[in-house]
Write a structure and sequence with these properties.
The protein is built from 13 helices and 11 strands. The chain is α/β, with parallel strands linked by helices.
């Protein structure tokens, strides 16, 4: 077992909490559409699947992805079948791939008898994902591509572009804690493929301050994903209570997808101290003593983001809410009113007298 399994890092455990919540919400949206288009096939691609478990027995992402689907509260209403639902797991190393296949069989029984299709392939994510998606008949129907590497962000932008233009599809890409310090060792030609050309990453490479490197690279990758065709891209840190944070970029072309991801963040149990952070927050607008609703506690990141947005000029609370939903890490449309109320209480912004509504215009003092 030496070299096949490794310890579960705190950052990975925190990220898995988010994935669990997101998968729980994503499957019903695609498979129980409630008046939306009914898809004939839905594919979850885990392109860096690993062996399926960690050294002390914790489940890896392929195991909990399959388990939570099969045991989902709405599974009997999702019309599950091997023809309609498939989970595709790609792992580069043969020994880890074989371990994953045996583990899934031990946990769930013969895979060919499951009510969904499970595909385990040995392959390299950046090189082989597109072909494997073709072989499994995934194109033309929704794909959730999870490119969750620890340090090898090597998926070509051409593949991301094809997924972006594929109906109902989304991606999650992870940058591991060491990626930003190790990127000098990466082949520039690979970076060209990932970011779409040297001109799109050279500026980030020139960032010397360690605290700014991850922000510059994450923004460069988000810009690449937008160029690839995703209508909305969220960039954020997943911060565990201990250890180094992970950095994620989520791309979708559907406002519903953004909403589902945000709700997944808010539904994660954070009792162990994990949090989500927006890379744009370098400082914080002081919270002060202003109050709004007795049971509410304002977050300095939310106030800072809204304050910085208002520096660009006056806008309505409704437009602020849409901006928070589609352009910031964890914040939702309904959080705009909280921030505006606080800024008014602290005499940092002006709002018409009376109750704050979506049509209220707000500007900085």
């Amino acid at each position: 077992m030496s070299g096949v399994l490794w310890p579960l890092e705190p950052a990975t455990a925190a990220k898995h909490k988010l994935y669990r919540r997101y998968y729980d919400a994503w499957w019903p949206v695609l498979l129980q559409p409630q008046g939306m288009r009914s898809w004939s096939r839905v594919t979850l691609l885990d392109a860096f699947a690993g062996p399926g478990q960690y050294q002390t027995g914790e489940d890896g992402s392929p195991v909990f992805a399959l388990q939570r689907l099969l045991e989902h509260d709405l599974a009997d209403r999702m019309n599950l079948s091997p023809q309609r639902v498939q989970l595709v797991f790609i792992e580069k190393r043969r020994d880890r791939c074989e371990h994953l296949m045996q583990l899934l069989t031990d946990r769930f029984g013969p895979l060919e008898k499951l009510p969904v299709r499970v595909v385990v392939r040995q392959g390299e994510a950046g090189r082989d994902s597109e072909q494997i998606l073709t072989e499994t008949g995934a194109w033309g129907q929704p794909i959730l591509g999870v490119f969750d590497s620890w340090g090898s962000v090597n998926t070509p932008l051409a593949l991301m572009r094809r997924i972006a233009r594929n109906p109902g599809s989304e991606v999650i890409t992870t940058f591991g804690p060491n990626w930003f310090s190790r990127r000098r060792d990466l082949n520039p030609d690979i970076l060209d493929q990932v970011f779409g050309g040297r001109q799109f990453w050279e500026q980030a490479a020139g960032t010397e301050q360690s605290d700014e490197q991850w922000r510059a690279w994450l923004e460069a990758y988000r810009a690449a994903m937008l160029r690839a065709g995703f209508g909305y891209c969220l960039q954020f840190q997943v911060v565990p209570r201990t250890g180094h944070p992970l950095h994620l970029v989520y791309g979708t072309s559907h406002p519903k997808g953004v909403q589902v991801m945000k709700e997944a963040m808010w539904n994660v149990d954070r009792s162990d101290g994990m949090s989500f952070k927006d890379p744009r927050c370098r400082g914080a607008v002081p919270i002060g003593q202003g109050t709004f609703w007795e049971t509410e506690v304002i977050d300095s990141e939310l106030v800072t983001l809204v304050h910085d947005r208002l520096k660009r000029g006056p806008t309505t609370v409704g437009d602020l809410g849409q901006w928070l939903l589609t352009e910031t890490s964890q914040w939702r449309a309904k959080d705009a009113a909280k921030a505006v109320q606080h800024l008014r209480d602290e005499h940092l912004a002006t709002v018409p007298p009376g109750r704050i509504t979506k049509t209220s215009t707000v500007s900085l003092r």
